[in-house]
Design brief:
This is Winged helix-turn-helix transcriptional regulator. Pfam families: HTH_20. The chain is α+β, with helices and mostly antiparallel strands. The chain is built from five helices and three strands, in the order H-H-E-H-H-E-E-H. It has a domain of 70 residues: Arc Repressor Mutant, subunit A (Orthogonal Bundle), CATH 1.10.10. It has a three-stranded antiparallel beta sheet. A hairpin with a 2-residue loop joins strand 2 and strand 3. The radius of gyration is 22 Å and the shape is elongated.
Length: 114
């Protein structure tokens, strides 16, 4: 099943454990064991979370001898930010229109006051 990149990133970010893993990786690379340390779940469960993040393109996993290291890849977050930004601009425009309307109402109200 192929998912578009935005949907894959949203799905990956829907889980708080995965968001916490990304927050940790934002500070630098880490091994799977280092990522699993603060969570009350198994390393295998963390590996499943990492697989979701990797499929979404949010992390890159490498193997060095027996160590598996992970690092954040911010590219999908930029794509997501651009997607969200188009809606932010839409809402900004709507708020500007609302501000203009409220100013007009206020002016009309002041004109009618004795």
């Amino acid at each position: 099943m192929t998912t578009d990149p935005v949907s894959a990133v949203f799905a990956a970010l829907a889980d708080p454990t995965r968001r916490a893993i990304l927050a940790r990786l934002a500070t630098g690379e880490a091994t799977v064991n280092e990522l699993a340390e603060p969570f009350p779940i198994s390393v295998q469960a963390i590996s499943k979370h990492l697989a979701v993040l990797e499929r979404a393109g949010l992390i890159v996993r490498t193997r060095e001898a027996q160590w598996r290291r992970c690092r954040l890849d911010p590219t999908p977050l930029r794509i997501l930010a651009e997607w969200v930004d188009q809606y932010r601009r839409l809402w900004d425009d709507r708020y500007d229109t609302l501000d203009d309307y409220l100013r007009e109402l206020k002016e009309i109200s002041h004109d009618r006051d004795p």
